[in-house]
């Protein structure tokens, strides 16, 4: 068993790192906390892991020559690197490793970043024979006192610690990183990247989307020629094929969108988006780490709410969970794409990004209001997230991430969407057994019951029914629209104004039942019901204001 002595962080920080590394290494290593350098005397660890605070480099590295001088094999683990970037500095890690003669890595326990690499380096160093080739050994001949050590460390940092105004020693990735996290350039760059992602999602996805829609229509026409008109043929074609096919057509767009999301996550740019938003989140009264679950909410609200467990402050944790449903999850994406493709052909990416931006802005306003209530009023937390290294994404990770989302999408199509399509068809077909007589169907009775409440938003009874079917899964709205309107919403009473009002309602009214159930489990019953009622009111109010003002204009 390899014995590792860990030294360099406050007690709480060391315990977290030791525990994380121990869990990962198993029985092959034993990590022992060392509280003071004197404890190294007379104890020959296989390797000493020194955890260095990037915001206090000179003071932290003053311990390094003492450890080396005791002929201990050592590895440096650099933490809190994001705070160093906040001071407009960066550190050339390869050059630091070269000058100080010690293997170096970056670690973050909270993000679970760099730990496997750290273990690999520790094993490699433990297997090496003890060396006297460290540059520090020449200080023995100079009576290695504190002043000599400090001068040595200062000289190393002069060569490796770089200010943004003096970037000649920075690597290419470090220069890119400084631009992406720049206080003035970071946010516009982030918005430009998101605009490009949505533009590609629509432009590149339009071709396979058209192929799938054509294939569904062709299959439906072929089946009509093989079957006699009956309730069974109507169920198969008007219910299953048209309902499921309408949702399946957006699969290429889902793949393209999550391809880009995977690239942003694996490269480390997603964490930089949270870094950019940290200042804004602090003004709201939250922490930058609250933005990570919100970003995850663009994929699915359920795991995003569960990800908020990592926020240590209980009030911030619950408030972040309540903010997540404002994020447009991938289930809402097919609805947006259907209306944007039909009514906003020349402004697709702009309208799409506006929906995401509206959700974020309303979540911020919601947080500001809630922070002033007795339930969430508190002092701000000044700690900041760690930033992982900026790196090149791996194709295997990207493919796995895409497949995970595609598999989830296909599972919904084969379960929730399929059953929703069958139920909607049945309510539309009976009791008249005539799809051309919708006004006397069970579905019309349900729609006309809620229609008076929705008419001020510009919605007829069919649109109201579509919103009801979105409760189990938002994708079901698309299949319902396909069944009710025969796949052509452009001639169904929608206008660009009612389309935008409808999309706003889909954005804001409470998410799927699974999300509410997760909120119930993670935050409590009262906050789950609070989300149901406040989201319904907000969706109705915002859609009402937009439609009424738009009608006047």
Q: Your description of this structure?
A:
With 553 residues, the protein is mainly α. Helix content is 63%, strand content 6%. It folds into two domains: 2-166, Rossmann fold (3-Layer(aba) Sandwich); 186-376 and 396-552, no CATH class. It contains 24 helices and seven strands. Helix 1 (11-25) links the parallel strand 1 (2-7) and strand 2 (29-33). Helix 22 packs antiparallel against helix 24. The longest helix is centred in the middle third of the chain and has 41 residues, at 186-226. The radius of gyration is 29 Å and the shape is elongated. The termini are far apart.
* Biggest β-sheet: strands ordered side by side in the sheet: 2-1-3-4-6
Secondary structure tally: strands: 7
Q: Report strand %.
A: 5-15%
Distance between the termini: 76 Å
Query: Helix segment count?
Result: 24
Instruction: Report low-confidence residues grouped into runs of 5 or more.
Output: 381-385
Number of domains: 2
Radius of gyration: 29 Å
Which terms would index this structure?
single chain, 553 residues, mainly alpha, Rossmann fold, 2 domains, five-stranded parallel β-sheet, two-stranded antiparallel sheet
Helix-strand blueprint:
Layout: E1 2-7, H1 11-25, E2 29-33, E3 47-53, H2 57-61, H3 63-69, E4 74-79, H4 81-86, E5 89-91, H5 93-100, E6 104-106, H6 115-127, H7 146-160, E7 161-163, H8 172-180, H9 186-226, H10 231-248, H11 251-267, H12 269-284, H13 291-296, H14 301-307, H15 314-323, H16 333-343, H17 348-370, H18 395-429, H19 442-454, H20 461-469, H21 476-485, H22 496-508, H23 513-523, H24 525-552
Parallel strand pairs: 1-2, 1-3, 3-4, 4-6
Antiparallel strand pairs: 5-7
Helix pairs in contact: 5-7, 9-10, 9-11, 9-17, 10-18, 10-21, 11-18, 14-23, 16-22, 18-21, 19-20, 20-21, 22-24, 23-24
């Amino acid at each position: 068993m390899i014995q590792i002595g860990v030294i360099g962080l406050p007690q709480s920080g060391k315990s977290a790192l030791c525990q994380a590394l121990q869990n990962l290494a198993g029985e092959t290593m034993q990590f022992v906390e060392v509280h003071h350098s004197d404890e190294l005397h007379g104890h020959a660890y296989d390797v000493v892991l020194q955890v260095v605070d990037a915001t206090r480099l000179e003071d932290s590295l003053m311990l390094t020559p003492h450890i080396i001088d005791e002929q201990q094999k050592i590895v440096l683990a650099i933490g809190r690197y994001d705070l160093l970037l906040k001071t407009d500095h960066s550190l050339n890690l390869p050059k630091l490793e070269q000058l100080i003669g010690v293997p170096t890595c970056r670690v973050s326990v909270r993000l679970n970043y760099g730990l496997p690499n750290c273990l690999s380096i520790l094993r490699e160093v433990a297997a090496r024979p003890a060396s006297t080739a460290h540059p520090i050994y020449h200080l023995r001949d100079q009576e290695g006192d504190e002043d000599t050590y400090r001068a040595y460390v200062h000289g190393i940092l002069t060569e490796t610690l770089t200010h943004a105004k003096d970037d000649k020693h920075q690597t290419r990735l470090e220069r890119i990183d400084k631009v992406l996290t720049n206080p003035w350039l970071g946010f516009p760059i982030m918005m430009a990247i998101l605009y490009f992602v949505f533009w590609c999602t629509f432009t590149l996805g339009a071709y396979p989307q058209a192929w799938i829609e054509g294939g569904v229509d062709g299959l439906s026409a072929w089946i009509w020629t093989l079957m006699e008109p009956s309730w069974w043929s109507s169920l198969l074609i008007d219910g299953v094929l048209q309902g499921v096919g309408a949702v399946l057509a957006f699969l290429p767009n889902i793949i393209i969108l999550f391809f880009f999301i995977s690239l942003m996550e694996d490269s480390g740019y997603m964490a930089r988006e949270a870094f950019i938003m940290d200042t804004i989140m602090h003004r709201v009264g939250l922490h930058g780490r609250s933005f990570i679950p919100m970003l995850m909410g663009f994929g699915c609200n359920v795991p995003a709410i569960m990800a908020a467990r990592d926020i240590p402050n209980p009030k911030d944790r619950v408030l972040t969970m309540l903010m997540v449903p404002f994020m447009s999850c991938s289930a809402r994406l097919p609805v947006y794409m259907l209306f944007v493709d039909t009514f906003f052909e020349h402004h697709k990416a702009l309208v799409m990004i506006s929906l995401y931006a509206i959700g974020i802005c309303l979540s911020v306003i919601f947080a500001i209001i809630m922070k002033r209530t007795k339930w969430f009023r508190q002092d701000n937390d000044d700690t900041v997230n760690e930033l992982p290294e900026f790196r090149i994404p791996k194709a295997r990770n990207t493919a796995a991430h895409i497949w995970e989302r595609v598999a989830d999408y296909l599972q919904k199509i084969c379960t929730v969407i399929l059953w929703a399509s069958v139920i909607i068809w049945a309510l539309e077909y009976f009791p008249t057994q005539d799809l051309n007589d919708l006004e006397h169907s069970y579905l019309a009775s349900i729609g006309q019951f809620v229609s008076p409440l929705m008419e001020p938003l510009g919605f007829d009874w069919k649109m109201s029914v579509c919103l009801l079917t979105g409760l189990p899964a938002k994708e079901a709205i698309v299949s319902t629209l396909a069944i009710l309107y025969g796949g052509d919403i452009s001639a169904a009473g929608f206008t660009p104004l009612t389309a935008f009002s409808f999309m706003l309602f889909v954005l804001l009214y409470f998410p799927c039942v699974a999300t509410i159930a997760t909120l119930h489990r993670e935050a409590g019953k009262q906050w789950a019901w609070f989300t149901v009622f406040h989201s319904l009111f907000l969706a109705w109010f915002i859609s009402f204001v937009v439609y009424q003002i738009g009608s006047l204009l």
